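Q: Second attempt. The first request was missing the SMILES, so the protein and flavin-adenine dinucleotide are both included now.
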Amino acid sequence: MPHVIVVGAGPGGLTSAISLAGLGFDVTLLEAKDRVGGRMGVVTDGTYTFDTGPTILQVPQVLEGIVSRAGRKLSDYVELRKVEPNTRITFWDRTSIETSTDRAKMAEEMAKFGAQQPANFDRWLTAHHEKYRLAWEKFIAYPADSIPDYFNPLRLTSTLPYKPWQTLATHLDEAFGDDRLTYALAYPSKYLGLHPTNCSSVFSVIPYLEFAFGLWHPMGGFRALADGLARCFTDLGGKVRLNAKVERIEIVGGKAKGVVLAGGERLSADAVVVNADFAHAAKNLIPQQHRTRWTDQKIEKLRYSCSTFMLYLGIDRPLDELRHHEIYLSKHVTDTSPLRLEDQDLDREDPPFYLANPSVTDPSFAPKGHSALYVLVPCPNTAHPVDWKGQLNRYTEMVIGRLRLVGAPDLTKHIKFQKVFTAETWRDEFFVHRGAVFNLSHNWTQLGPLRPRSQSEDVENLHWVGGGTHPGSGLLTIFESANIAAGHLAERFGKRAPSTPVERVPPVPPEILRAAAR
Ligand SMILES: Cc1cc2nc3c(=O)[nH]c(=O)nc-3n(C[C@H](O)[C@H](O)[C@H](O)COP(=O)(O)OP(=O)(O)OC[C@H]3O[C@@H](n4cnc5c(N)ncnc54)[C@H](O)[C@@H]3O)c2cc1C
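A: Got both inputs this time. The predicted holo structure:
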């Protein structure tokens, strides 16, 4: 049985390991830290518990598909619950919208922004049923192995009616003509390292996924999802080694032959799949002579996403007035000055932020009658240094004070636990290049075959998965990177391909299609 080593047990490593074990490979998963999950980690003081990274699972069918193709059932490992409403978004003018998969509720919410908006929304959503299918099949699930193949005009003609050259801001403005709705739907572009004014309209598929498939929460938190995936992998016969930091990939005669661990232990393998952050791992684990395309200079020239300032707050009271997911959009989200577009400067005046209050859905975060708040504020990555030491307390106080903007009461007296992460935490403790937590930006020059590919171009039997690789940095695209790598390894070792891109397009829920047809 061919032996595959997977380096890193983040979401990309865990799902690759499951896919490969399901295909019959002998798989060893090596993780530098003392737990699985990567950025999908945990902070706890024993009373309050927080997920460190992802709080939103979109289109759980992708993950279910991976686990079921490996012969297991995801529900045996973790319980997923749909969150309703999806998100409450509060705007700079203090108006707000609650988003939902419930079409009647969305019509009501949209009507608050003008009598024409429910019909505009219906039209927009209906146009996306097909746009979504094409985007998934042609961009998200499609292996980006060659530039001529990926950008073949014949392959892409069916996408042209959707004007992929148009910016996301123009597309949404044409659909709604209201800045608030444009920025509400476009906000995920922040997590792509982009701004709606410099981001392709292709990415309107991300808000569509939210309206069509909803937002999902793993009970026990995303840490329980990581643990569940690791259990599934070991049930399939895989081996997990924690505290096993890989120091370098062994490359002999242009082929990956195994890894060397910190401490000197050598492990041999027929193939190596790297899930550690692409830019960090390329620079640190693979000598320059084996990287003709991704040289150190090239890696430094790439465009990276913002980082995040994180605040994890244990509160000694329930906060039922807050939704599970809250977003505050300040007027600054519409600012297109270079400083803001590229997040080169810390916004000390009016930063947009996201808040999660998972205790309204899941009792595992805080004792009864208490709450565990997670606050995420986009901030510069470490290429644009911030004097965190000098201003951490002031900045933290400012952010806590501004939680009132999403309806949180004055919390100062109720904070019983507090932990902060900055870009430096992500860089130093999670091994993320520049602390750019959403990895490389998703501009056209860093997409598809122009992004790091699943199959190394220089080294045989070396593969990449995770947010820094094709197709991109959210959980569902990371899971697709695992599917793509599994497809390549199956082919390389003469196994049946586990699935095709067309088979992997999750069907739109019938109630969403039905409602649109009315
Ligand atoms: C604050 C935050 C919020 C996010 N929110 C969402 C969200 O709501 N929804 C969503 O879809 N996405 C979200 N994301 C984006 C994305 O889902 C996560 O960043 C995801 O965890 C990245 O997964 P990954 O597998 O690419 O890498 P990682 O999670 O970084 O995993 C890589 C693993 O490799 C290990 N490693 C590194 N170097 C070595 C080495 N030398 N040897 C062995 N192991 C090594 C690391 O310890 C780590 O465990 C969020 C990210 C962050 C940071």
